[in-house]
Amino acid sequence: MVDYSPAMMTDMYEYTMLDATLQDGTAQRKCVFEVFTRHLPEGRRYGVVAGTGRLLEALRDFHPTDEDLKFLADRKIVSPQTIKWLENYSFSGTMRGYREGDVFFPNSPILQVEGTFAECTLLETLILSIFNYDSAVASAASRMASAAKGRPCMDMGGRRTNEWSAVAASRAAMIGGFKGTANLLAAQLYDLPAIGTAAHCFTLVHDSERDAFESQIQALGRNTTLLVDTYSIEDAVKTAVEVAGPELGGVRIDSGDLAQLAQRVRSQLDALGAGNTKITVTNDLDEYAIASLQTAPVDSYGVGTQLVTGSGAPTCAMVYKLTEREGVSGAMEPVAKKSKDKATVPGRKLAYRSFEGDLADCEHVVAGPEEALNSFGAPENWRNLLTTFVNHGEINDQFTGHQAIMDAQQFHAKTLSELPITAQSLMRGDPVIPTETTVLK
């Protein structure tokens, strides 16, 4: 990734709050912060959690450098006493939440951060920037993969977003069910399958389409995928099979009426003896376009703009709110906002999903004082949704790296299969299961 200091991936007010609380004595109060969204994007049935692994990777390096401290001091953002405190900063608290690949709904406590106010408040922007974007992409990817009905979807969105987001999007797309990425940095960092062959400029730089195809076959072998819509698709397919033979791996169509063209190309390939040659389609696809191609003879999809922009929902509107803090007596006290339309539920949370048979029927959020939660007994058909990722500063490496992405992809597929079938509907509707919140005394 681009070399930057995670400790500066903050809003200024996180450091000014730290400075003020260090001076007034509340910085060391124990606190519980919670990440959740008040609503899903309009009409969506579920969201997909993604970003935990990236957060844990960033958390390892969340220590202000000497250069960071000099910047904060020179700009007089914090006092000299706070600069001294920051010299030894590292997160020593605990994080627990929903696993990557799990689904979430309004008010699902997807991440809880427990520690002192001082160490937790600095993480707000980092946490929200990662979870809001990654979960938006994973949610869109899940809808696209579901619409594809088993045909692989590939990430080709790196040129449709900024360079940092491109890598994050590739990772999140895999969690949502995609099978590969065109972004080599993402493939390198996370050991993801890389895909890609040639663009239209490759054909245009050659004196003829035949010359371009011969060059690509010579370099990449007969199993490559040839782009056939630079000029005439019919002529290109004929030339492609003449050059590569019936062993040609695939052709790609990037324009026009994709369903009609795929049908024509399939018939032409079969007539030319290339019955095993695959057809890939691209061209600004989203879940609705993919669904419209279900009956077309398409073998795979390349998705760009709509993937990396969350297919119309580029953020999940997640927030990071204080729900419990240590009082003057030393006891933990639930706290909450009461603002109009922005009220929060006080207290730390437990989260469960209940089932009727093999299908989920409700999300249950249980809030209250720690003692009440410790004695809470969940019914047998309720599944605990919270997993510990960081335990008193110790990061569980099980949730980072390549295998964590593959595990999250499999976990998502399993979780999605447990939701009512309407979860996979592309029609606008309410969340596929309700969320019930209980506050214990």
UniProtKB/TrEMBL annotation:
Residue ranges of every copy of the Nicotinate phosphoribosyltransferase N-terminal domain listed in the record: 8-132
GO biological process, one term: NAD+ biosynthetic process via the salvage pathway
Known catalytic reactions: 5-phospho-alpha-D-ribose 1-diphosphate + nicotinate + ATP + H2O = nicotinate beta-D-ribonucleotide + ADP + phosphate + diphosphate
Residues annotated as domain Nicotinate/nicotinamide phosphoribosyltransferase: 153-339
Keyword Ligase found: yes
The entry's keywords: Glycosyltransferase, Ligase, Phosphoprotein, Pyridine nucleotide biosynthesis, Transferase
Molecular function terms, GO-annotated: glycosyltransferase activity; nicotinate phosphoribosyltransferase activity
Pathway recorded for this protein: Cofactor biosynthesis; NAD(+) biosynthesis; nicotinate D-ribonucleotide from nicotinate: step 1/1
Enzyme class: ligase
CDD domains assigned: NAPRTase_A (cd01570)
SUPFAM superfamilies, per database record: Nicotinate/Quinolinate PRTase C-terminal domain-like (SSF51690), Nicotinate/Quinolinate PRTase N-terminal domain-like (SSF54675)
Family according to the record: Belongs to the NAPRTase family.
PANTHER family assigned to the protein according to its UniProt record, in alphabetical order: NICOTINATE PHOSPHORIBOSYLTRANSFERASE, NICOTINATE PHOSPHORIBOSYLTRANSFERASE PNCB1
Protein task: Catalyzes the first step in the biosynthesis of NAD from nicotinic acid, the ATP-dependent synthesis of beta-nicotinate D-ribonucleotide from nicotinate and 5-phospho-D-ribose 1-phosphate.
Name of this protein: Nicotinate phosphoribosyltransferase
Lineage start: Bacteria, Bacillati, Actinomycetota, Actinomycetes, Bifidobacteriales
